């Protein structure tokens, strides 16, 4: 958190999703800004691309004023974004492009705007109820589903190691019993040393 609100003026150069933007400040600094108090569908969710397009239509290639209220764990600025006198965070909620992020919102008016958009079936609220999954719940759901898939792949190194060990053991047995000629692979000095050991093998392993 920051003790005082920090104001920045910057030109938006990229909009990766509906609640995040990248902007260039006049001093050459590039900042990533997470719009506070709102949360938009992820790009893989229904209405995710539409939310991103809505934000881009308002701010991309435009100069905005950023009122920083915090900094998140990813190092992004968290704050309110203004285009002229328009509060972009508010407009995203007003037109149904974003959910109010109730756990972090300090904007009482946003809840009323969200309810109006819901009743008017604007933006994401026009989707069937089954497809209107809050993004914070969607992220938890898919994070949990991803774990078994990653764990399942861990068996392959063990299978590969077993196959390699079996091949080496088989090759060693064939050489020790005289069925495999490795003279072309092994230096002559080492081969003579190994041959001495092979000569002392039990008769049950020696073949003509």
UniProtKB/TrEMBL annotation:
The chain crosses the membrane at residues 155-176. SUPFAM superfamilies: Staphylococcal nuclease. Keywords: Endonuclease, Hydrolase, Membrane, Nuclease, Transmembrane, Transmembrane helix. GO terms for cellular component: cytoplasm. InterPro entries: SNase_OB-fold_sf, Staphylococal_nuclease_OB-fold, Thermonucl_AS. Pfam families: SNase. It comes from the Bacteria. Residues 6-127 form the TNase-like domain. GO terms for molecular function: endonuclease activity; hydrolase activity; nucleic acid binding. This is Endonuclease YncB, thermonuclease family.
């Amino acid at each position: 958190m920051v003790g005082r609100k920090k104001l920045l003026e910057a030109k938006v150069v990229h909009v990766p999703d509906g609640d995040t933007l990248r902007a260039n400040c006049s001093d050459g600094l590039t900042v990533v800004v997470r719009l506070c108090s709102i949360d938009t569908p992820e790009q893989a969710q229904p209405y995710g691309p539409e939310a991103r397009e809505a934000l881009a239509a308002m701010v991309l290639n435009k100069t905005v004023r950023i009122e920083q209220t915090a900094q998140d764990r990813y190092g992004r600025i968290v704050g309110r974004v203004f285009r002229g006198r328009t509060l972009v965070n508010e407009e995203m909620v007003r037109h149904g492009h974003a959910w109010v992020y109730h756990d972090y919102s300090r904007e009482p008016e946003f809840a009323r705007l969200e309810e109006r958009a819901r009743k008017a079936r604007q933006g994401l609220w026009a989707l069937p109820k089954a497809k209107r999954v809050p993004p914070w719940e969607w992220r938890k759901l898919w994070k949990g589903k991803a774990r078994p898939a990653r764990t399942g792949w861990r068996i392959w190194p063990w299978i590969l190691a077993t196959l390699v060990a079996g091949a080496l053991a088989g090759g060693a047995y064939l050489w020790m019993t005289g069925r495999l000629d490795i003279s072309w692979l092994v230096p002559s000095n080492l081969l003579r040393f190994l041959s001495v050991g092979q000569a002392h093998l039990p008769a049950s392993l020696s073949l003509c």
